[in-house]
Specification:
Blueprint (H helix, E strand, L loop, with lengths): L2 E4 L11 H11 L10 E4 L7 E4 L8 H4 L6 E3 L5 E3 L9 H5 L6 E3 L4 E3 L6 H4 L7 E4 L1
Antiparallel strand pairs: 1-8, 2-3, 4-5, 6-7
């Protein structure tokens, strides 16, 4: 069964960025949290609540619809598969993402895309993230 990433327990998040570091290391072979497909950030203010920017696993992903080179294809159960070798770096997927979960990596000239692999879940020490069967 396909699974999708969820962050249902954000109130438990302490902002350790372990999920971001694991994602960047696994997908981008980089140690910078900025290279992660998942982004934890503060909404600011005195309470400084944390929120997460992640792929919501659209069943009809707009990012894949605008991809002219078939680098993004819809994944069974939601989300997309990303074929780096097909990507031409046009950034249309970044603009098309309705939740703003796709960012562009200027170093590699390619988008940073969540592939719903669950690596971030394994490294979250407070069980904020989980994978749900679709």
């Amino acid at each position: 069964m396909p699974k999708l990433l969820r962050a249902d327990q954000m109130k438990k998040c302490i902002g350790c960025y372990s999920c971001m570091l694991a994602c960047a290391r696994t997908l981008q072979h980089d140690f910078s949290p900025r290279k992660a497909a998942i982004q934890i950030r503060s909404v600011g203010g005195l309470q400084s609540r944390l929120v997460v920017d992640i792929c919501r696993g659209c069943t009809d992903p707009p990012c894949a619809l605008v991809c002219n080179c078939n680098a993004l294809t819809p994944r069974r159960g939601g989300g997309v598969r990303f074929y780096k070798d097909r990507c031409i770096g046009c950034e249309k997927c970044v603009e098309a993402c309705i939740v703003g979960a796709i960012r562009f990596d200027e170093d590699n000239k390619q988008p940073i895309i969540c592939i719903q692999c669950g690596t971030c879940v394994k490294y979250c020490p407070h069980e904020v993230l989980s994978m749900h069967e679709v």
